[in-house]
């Protein structure tokens, strides 16, 4: 083959490579062009949080929260995984999400097999009636009615706060019927699915969380047997962050927390805005929302520090409530043969208080324009 033919062939090959490269690069070039010619040029990145339908997470994923982060250059994306806690922990481990929410019990059970890929950085809320055991009126009217009954069908989400409420009630009230084995246990994909099983008659009892508790008690043929208003620190929701993300971008973790506490403070100052957000998120009428809100006790910055993370200024007192809840939760799990071995037996390996401590000290030092703006 002479040099002229080889040169022509090389020119063709180079041309083909250039065309292919251009086609592959075009989406990225178009994306860069869009960013440079729009307000998106100021966007620093995206923050992803895995959540579910529990109403306590509404402030975290609210329009107000998204706006605050957007003003700081970050896009907030809340991803509803329908309470698939095992998958949530896997995604947190794999870095597919930056943050995740869960109850303490769900975190212990689902994160332990993955060596606890997330670290707890804040308590979001405590359920004070927002989780409940509900039954069909024609089958059961009280917890005592469950005792000795055979053939009951119970619907719940496995390794979830509902499951934990059933465990605690079964042990405390000596009602093992709440945790049937075999076909009597109907495991569902979230609270809404459990409610559907109950209303269709396929389940006699269901363990639910809000907004499904409110939907259930509105039905004349359903009765509430037990709610978390009768418990203390049993169902506690926490926010956790991927450990690698925390190390790589601690300033973003601080931003998310400070923004959240400011949003929470805004909702407390103007409760009508929270009511509107709840109506939008749940589709329930205002009257149901007002009753539902009584079942959630949100935890602000000061409460997080003093009551849960053992943080206090000189002369103040503080409690390690979150450590106590981790240990109490594990005791309940142990009663059912499900105790979770903690890393080196140390619950402090599961929490990181530094972010809250920094925010708290900033507020005390007056570096936050309005101390109360952080939810203090």
UniProtKB/TrEMBL annotation:
GO terms for cellular component: periplasmic space. GO terms for biological process: alkanesulfonate transmembrane transport. Its main location: periplasm. It is found in: Periplasm. Keywords: Signal. Belongs to the bacterial solute-binding protein SsuA/TauA family. This is SsuA/THI5-like domain-containing protein.
């Amino acid at each position: 083959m002479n040099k002229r033919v080889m040169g022509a062939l090389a020119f063709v090959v180079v041309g083909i490579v250039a065309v292919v490269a251009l086609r592959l690069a075009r989406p990225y070039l178009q994306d860069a062009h869009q960013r440079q010619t729009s307000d998106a040029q100021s966007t620093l990145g995206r923050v992803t949080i895995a959540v579910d339908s529990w109403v306590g997470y509404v402030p975290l994923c609210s329009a107000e929260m998204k706006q605050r982060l957007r003003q700081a250059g970050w896009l907030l994306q809340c991803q509803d995984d329908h309470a698939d806690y095992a998958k949530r922990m896997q995604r947190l481990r794999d870095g597919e999400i930056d943050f995740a929410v869960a109850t303490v019990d769900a975190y212990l059970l689902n994160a332990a097999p993955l060596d606890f890929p997330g670290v707890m950085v804040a308590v979001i809320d405590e359920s004070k009636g927002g989780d409940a055991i509900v039954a069909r009126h024609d089958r059961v009217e009280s917890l005592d009615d469950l005792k000795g009954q055979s053939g009951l069908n119970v619907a719940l989400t496995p390794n979830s706060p509902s499951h934990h409420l059933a465990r605690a009630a079964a042990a405390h009230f000596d009602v093992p019927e709440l945790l049937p084995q075999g076909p009597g246990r109907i495991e569902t994909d979230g609270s809404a699915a459990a409610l559907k099983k109950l209303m269709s008659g396929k389940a006699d009892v269901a363990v639910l969380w809000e907004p499904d508790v409110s939907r259930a008690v509105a039905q004349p043929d359903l009765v509430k047997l037990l709610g978390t208003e009768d418990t203390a620190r049993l169902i506690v929701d926490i926010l956790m962050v991927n450990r690698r993300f925390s190390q790589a971008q601690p300033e973003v973790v601080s931003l998310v927390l400070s923004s959240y506490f400011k949003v929470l403070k805004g909702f407390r100052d103007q409760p009508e805005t929270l009511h509107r957000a709840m109506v939008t998120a749940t589709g329930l009428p205002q009257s149901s929302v007002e009753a539902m809100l009584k079942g959630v006790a949100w935890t602000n910055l000061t409460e997080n520090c003093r009551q849960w993370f053992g943080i206090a200024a000189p002369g103040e007192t503080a409690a390690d409530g979150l450590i106590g809840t981790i240990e109490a939760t594990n005791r309940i799990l142990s009663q059912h043969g499900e105790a979770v071995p903690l890393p080196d037996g140390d619950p402090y390996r599961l929490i990181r208080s530094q972010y809250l401590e920094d925010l708290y000290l900033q507020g005390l030092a007056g570096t936050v324009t309005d101390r109360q703006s952080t939810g203090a």
